[in-house]
Amino acid sequence: MDFPLELLINAIIAGVLLGGFYIAVTVGISISFGMLDIVNIAHPAFIILGSYLAYIVNSTFGLDPVLVGLLMLPVFYALGAAVYQIYYVSFEKRGQEALRGLAFFFGILFITEVGLILVFGVDYRYVDAPYIGPTLRFAFVDLPYRMLIPCVLSLLMLVVLQAFLSHTYIGRAIKAVSQDQGALALMAANPVAIKRIAFGISIATAALAGAFLVIIQPVEPSVGREYIGRVFAICVLGGLGSLPGTVIAAMLLGVVESITATFYGPSWAPAVAFGFLLLTLAFRPAGILGR
Amino acid sequence: MQSRTFILVTIAVAAAVFAVAQLVSNNYLFFAGYTVLQFVVLATAWNILGGYCGYVNFGSAAFFAVGAYSSVFLHKAYPLPVPALILVAGFIAGIVGFGMGYLTLRLRGSFFAIATLALAVVLQTLVTNWDFVGGSRGAYVIRPNTLDVFGYQIPYIEYLFLQMLVLATIAIATARTIERSRLGYGFATIRDDELAAEAAGVPTLRLKLIATTLSGALMGMAGAPFPYYLGFLQPQSAFALEYAVNSIAMPMIGGTGSWIGPLIGAVLLGTIQQVATVTISSAVNVLIVGVLLVAFVIIAPNGIVGFVQNLMRKGRP
To answer: Chain A contact for B245, CB < 8 A?
Structure first.
């Protein structure tokens, strides 16, 4: 048997598309964990919440899931700001974020998941949109639209965020707070307010990521758990808080996962991300583009 | 109280629990009691690392499952009596804990927490793809109905209950001994200010490795009799998130400062969950744990023990 080159090329391209989507999933963590040092392990739960909202609006009003994601941005921003306020008052101010802050987010993750199970059950939910189903073909290369569109939009989202962080006053303040909070306070800016905005933005990205997720695959409440490892693996591998690093790491993970799933079977794919994470932590904790 | 007296008192309490359970002579009590005791061990083990050193372990389910699956493996490869299985499981889970700690404990605390989450998924994938221990289909472990001890027929569930009781006693005595020893003070310096401890010459890495190994070993031991308890083991039930969340929630709700917190939390929450599972539904009882966890870390950060201590302090003139 000769080497299945076409299969390999298709697996790599599918991996790149998947990696593109992983950018959207991870960018929120890159902001909250990478820049603000808030270990928000509940982030995937917010993504699943976004998926369910997209599903509800889509199935009742027939709105496009991506449009729903965009409409939900302010709602999720407010939700994120509120969560940060609770986190700040209860943990950061008291200096207890290490132990109790983590337990807090773990509890939120859990409540969201079980709450969704109680309301919607464990059935898989999916959305309808004209681009789910058809595939773009070049010779032997398949580009399914349901992967292509989330990938392109995720990249767009990253470019917008990167521009926001580099060129606006608030964006630069967020970068500053990640470098030296004390210095920012000396410049008469309020680090808590800046962090609240940044955390709001990080949760807002979950609204779009959730819409992309439900386009790519049917969703049930515990799907989020698989993403905990992935997002942190990508975030750490890319170098904490580095958005370009996030892109490289997301693509890398997507390709390796896709190749693993194609050649060894999908049941091994979840271990890839976590293997990556453990190896990165053991050998290069600063990540690819780490400072 | 002297350590030796304390251990004797603990053993006496455990014996009393067993005697009372015998008097009631309802088999369901042993089934429910086993689960509560299992959580006492898990919560106490978690607290050795989480409460004393301040490092969060989200992977309790992974260590528990390592224990459970080493039992399944031995059951198929080379059957041993359950107490021996517990020792082997403790040894293996201890090694996993050590390796885990060695890879990640040199980094910031949050990396350790994330890596423990990762560990659970890696191990679950391995077990799911490992046919010898049943893979995703799960494995049956046929246990005898009764156990023959000097001519008496003891129901097997009572035998398992007794072992879990002994294990809980050992775990609590260990935690209490650590608290009062040099080791415990070393752990406390890590929790309060690791940098200062390191600068003052405390061998922080070595102490943290001791804590992860010990904590992992105890969790593995708690998991070892589990396949015999259920009679059937599949990856989803061994790696259930329920174990991870309970072993965090119980010490947090009880109070992380001393051995009594996890005990109070485990007995209280464990009993509530047993009642809720029977009367309401099992999804709701998991929700209860999550809500209580969030409520407690926000409102009563030092748990029930801290809350009571505060009340007593205020009560004094």
So the answer is: yes
Dist. CA A222–CA A121, nearest whole Å:
11
pLDDT digits (tens, 9 = 90+) for A56-100: 999 898 888 889 999 999 999 999 999 999 998 888 887 776 788
The owner of tokens 């101010």 is: A93
CB contact under 8 A, A277 and B114: yes
CB contact under 8 A, B117 and A228: yes
Say how far apart CA A230 and CA B220 lie, in whole Å. Answer: 26
Instruction: Establish if B300 touches chain A: CB-CB under 8 angstroms.
Output: no
* Amino acid sitting at position A64: D
Name the residue of chain A whose CA is nearest to B123's CA.
Answer: A271
CA atoms of A99 and A109, how far apart (whole Å): 16
Q: Whole-prediction pTM value? A: 0.87
CA distance A110 to A45: 8
Query: Quick one: DSSP state of residue B149?
Result: E
Residues from chain A that touch B118, judged by Cβ atoms under 8 A, are 229, 232-233, 273-274, 277-278
Judge: B294–A271 Cβ closer than 8 Å, yes or no. no
Of B126, B256, B287, which is closest to A111 when you measure between CB atoms?
Answer: B287
Q: Which residue has the tokens 């599972």?
A: B277
Q: Do A98 and B297 touch (CB under 8 A)?
A: no
Q: What is the number of other CB atoms lying within 10 angstroms of the CB of residue B19?
A: 9
Evaluate whether A256 touches A205 at the Cβ level (below 8 Å): no
Question: What is the C-alpha to C-alpha distance for residues A144 and A131, in angstroms, rounded to an integer?
Answer: 9
**Pairwise CA distance, residues A231 & A155, whole Å:** 16
Pair of tokens at residue A195 = 């962090």
User: Phi and psi (nearest 5°) for B43?
Assistant: -65, -40
Q: Nearest Cβ partner of B54 from A33, A99, A236?
A: A99
Please report the ipTM that was assigned to this predicted complex: 0.83
CB contact under 8 A, A90 and B297: yes
C-alpha to C-alpha distance for A149 and A164, rounded to whole angstroms: 22
Contact B125 A226 (CB under 8 A): no
Whether the CB-CB separation of B103 and A281 falls below 8 Å is answered with yes
> How would you label A87-99 residue by residue, b for 16+ Cβ within 10 Å and e otherwise?
bbebbbeeebbbb
Residue A142 β-bridge partners: A137
pLDDT tens sequence for chain B (317 residues): 677 788 888 888 888 887 777 777 677 888 888 999 999 999 999 999 988 988 888 889 999 999 999 988 888 888 788 888 899 999 999 999 998 888 888 776 778 888 888 788 888 888 888 888 877 788 888 777 777 777 677 788 888 888 899 999 999 999 999 988 999 999 999 888 888 888 888 888 899 999 999 999 999 999 999 988 888 888 888 888 788 888 999 999 998 888 899 999 999 998 888 888 777 777 777 788 889 989 988 888 888 888 888 888 876 65
In angstroms, what separates the C-alpha of A93 from chain B's closest C-alpha? 12
Q: Considering only CA atoms, which of B145, B140, B167, B141 is closest in space to residue B156?
A: B145
